[in-house]
Amino acid sequence: VQLVESGGGLVQPGGSLRLSCAASGFTFSGYAMSWYRQAPGKERELVAGISSYGVTTNYADSVKGRFTISRDNAKNTVYLQMNSLKPEDTAVYYCNVRRGARAYWGQGTQVTVSS
Predict the structure, then answer these.
(1) DSSP state, 31?
(2) Any alpha helices (H) in 46-87, and if so which ranges?
(3) Rounded CA gap, 66 and 72, in Å?
(4) Residue 40 to residues 53, 62, 93: CA-CA distances in angstroms?
(5) Over the stretch 86-102, which tens digit does the pLDDT of each residue have?
(6) Contact status, residue 111 vs residue 9, Cβ threshold 8 Å
(7) Is 106 in contact with 20 (CB distance < 8 Å)?
(8) Contact at 8 Å (CB) between 111 and 89?
(9) How far is C-alpha 85 from the geometric centre of its chain's CA atoms?
(10) Sorting pLDDT into bands at 50, 70 and 90, what band is 41?
């Protein structure tokens, strides 16, 4: 299993970023996918999740109405569109998949929201 995140960077408050996570090594369309984030000094937290065919999504209260998770099973890729970014969204963002009892993580991509 390999998960490779991209799309992070420095953005001003109110700006937007789109994160991507390219997956390989498993049947992508068979699994729900999630995005997590971890800010300095804080625990890793769930940001958003999406079911295997994208029918169901869920979001942390802190990002509802601003972030949108989506997936393209033909490209084995899950996305996180982040709008109206706030300084408190600054964190390393990780892609996640759970296969049975094991969780797999990407290397993370840094998102910094600052003026």
Answers:
(1) S
(2) none
(3) 20
(4) 33, 17, 12
(5) 999 999 999 999 998 99
(6) yes
(7) no
(8) yes
(9) 14
(10) very high
Instruction: List the strands of the sheet with 67-72, edge to edge.
Output: 2-6, 17-24, 77-82, 67-72
Q: At 15, is the pLDDT very low, low, confident or very high (cuts 50, 70, 90)? A: very high
- Answer yes or no: are the C-beta atoms of 110 and 7 closer than 8 Å: no
C-alpha closest to that of 115 among 80, 91, 90: 90
Q: Choose among 3, 39, 7: nearest CA to 109.
A: 7
Both tokens assigned to 30? 């068979």
- Sort strands 9-11 and 109-113 into parallel, antiparallel or unpaired: parallel
The CA distance from 48 to 7, in Å, is 16
Give residue for tokens 């963002």.
93
